[in-house]
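Format notes (please read before filing issues)

Several people have asked whether sequences and structure tokens are stored in separate files. They are not. Every record keeps both together, in the order shown below: the sequence lines, then the token lines. Line labels are part of the format and must not be stripped during preprocessing.
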Amino acid sequence: MRYDQITYYPPFERHSLLLQVTCGCSYNRCAFCNMYKNVEFEVLPLKEILQDLKDAAEYNPYTERVFLVGGEPLCLPFAQMKELLTQIRHYLPYCACVSMYASIKNLRDKSVEELRELHRLGLGFLYIGLESGSDRILQLMHKGHSCAEAVEQLKKLNEAQIPFNSILIYGLGGAGTAQENAVESARMLNQVRSANIIMMNLTVFPDTELETWCKEGTFHEASNRERIEELACLLENLKLTTPTGFSTSHITNPVMVSGTLPYDKEKMLDGVYAMLGTDRLNGIVAVCDVATQR
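Then the structure lines:
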């Protein structure tokens, strides 16, 4: 792998073979993200990717899991992604799953039939940054998709039977938006089937538009208490019936909440309200009060 920038991958993929496919992010306009701000977007030539794959196969032909590195490897046209997955299967016959980051816009040009074919060839898992279900907050943060578009594309993955993690950011709307972000995000998630819901706590990173807003005083961060109240409100409004993991295990989180919905919902809510030092009823009222003080 010839990439000389920071390599990002989910903690779960720490034992996977990392295969570079893209550098940077073709969109690169989200107000809160600085991951690829100084990286020029590039899709590596397929010849280079396959050479890295051959080298890796010689080192460990028994690799069972591959993570495609880059902000959006799924931006590859269907034919190229199909060829890459075919070659992975050829050189790493024991590989049971190929995974990667993906965005809603990456899915727009893939049909359900094409996604099914990619799944058949080994595309086994996606990590998707949804961030929020509120159209207002998505627009504020320049996310580049609407809630309705997210639901439409995620339903395609459900139909193609490709599992994915839904990644959301609590506190993303700023102070006074806990209920809005929680209720709208839950409404979005209730319409699709996620393998896991991964919660990240909003962090203001340097060299982002969000940092500029904070310095100018046009964006006010939610307090730690309001963020925990937002988690409670989100959990209260999730009405999932199929087993779905829920976790705040990401390094950005100040609290740990984890379990499987719907089975562990009450246990997780009891834990969140215990952190707030309030009972369930008062906790819900507090969230509503904070949300209306805008």
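For reference, the curators noted about this record: The two ends are 49 Å apart (CA to CA). Confidence is low (pLDDT under 50) at residues 283-294.
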